[in-house]
Amino acid sequence: MSSGQARRTLVHFAARGPAQRVFPANVRGYAQAAAVQDTKPPVALFGLDGTYASALYTAAAKTSSLDSTSKSLAALAEVFKRDAKLPLILNAPTLSPSDKSQIVQELQRHMGAQDKGDTVKNFLKTLADNNRLGILQGVCDKFTTLMGAARGEMDLTVTSAAKLDNKVLQRLEAAVAKSEYSQGKKLKVVSKINPDIMGGLVVEVGDRTIDLSVSSKIAKMNKLLTDTL
User: Fold this and answer.
1) What's the rounded Cα separation, in Å, for the pair 213 and 120?
2) Mean pLDDT calculated for residue range 142-148
3) Residue 83: how many CB atoms within 10 A of its CB?
4) Number of CB atoms found within 10 A of residue 4's CB
5) What are the angstrom distances between the C-alpha of 196 and each of 161, 183, 191, 216?
6) Element at 82 (helix H, strand E)
7) Of 54 and 114, which is predicted with more confidence?
8) Which of 30, 33, 116, 192 makes the best surface tag, with the fewest CB within 10 Å?
């Protein structure tokens, strides 16, 4: 499949219009076609960013560019980490076609030459055409989930109030790997910082959450007091 055909695939599965009216039928048709060609995403994702990430996965699989697409999106994810204002810019309702074109060109520059077959370039243009650039960060995150699932990996997300030392993360990874929570899969550690938890940790493994945060303990204590009084 050519890069032009890949883009048309993305346009077909991410057409204009309200998500609740357009996507369900398209997703059903997309899933059937993907199953035939063995390009179906390894896990089901939800939300608009999940729908676009799944469509991108299929387009990349059909053009044998999953690896380069993953690297390109990883590069874009780093841009989001460095520039806190980028989501605000991408979500601005006043973006003109010229603005969107310049944004796409700038994002391409950050990807470098690793975008095989212009798969991500065409995807970015699709997002711009459909006024969906604002979901790009979510697409990057969910594409990582798809690639991890395809490799047999499982995310181990550790949220703390402050940055954790690498040795602490390694010990957590080793402990979870030996537990039933890992299901025998290779763990991919994702460290997040959220000052709102006040202290302690929130550990997410697959679809399980272990909340050991201070904020959670305070909330439970407040509920106990409220129920008692």
Assistant:
1) 38
2) 91
3) 11
4) 11
5) 7, 30, 15, 10
6) helix 66-82
7) 54
8) 192
- Reduce the DSSP state of residue 132 to 3 states and report it: coil
Render pLDDT for 44-76 as a digit per residue (tens, 0 to 9). 889 999 999 999 999 999 999 999 999 999 999
Alpha-carbon 42 to chain mean position: 14
**Stretch 159-177: mean pLDDT:** 91
The three-class DSSP label of residue 203 is strand
Determine phi and psi for 211, rounding to 5 degrees: -95, 105
Q: Is 158 helix (H, G, I), strand (E, B) or coil?
A: strand
Distance CA 147, CA 188 (A): 11
Report residue 113 as tokens. 């030459």
What CA–CA distance (Å, rounded) separates 1 from 3? Answer: 7
Task: Tell me the three state secondary structure of residue 199.
Answer: coil
CA distances from 195 to 80, 155, 200, 213 (A): 19, 21, 10, 11
Count Cα atoms within 13 angstroms, Cβ side, for 193: 6
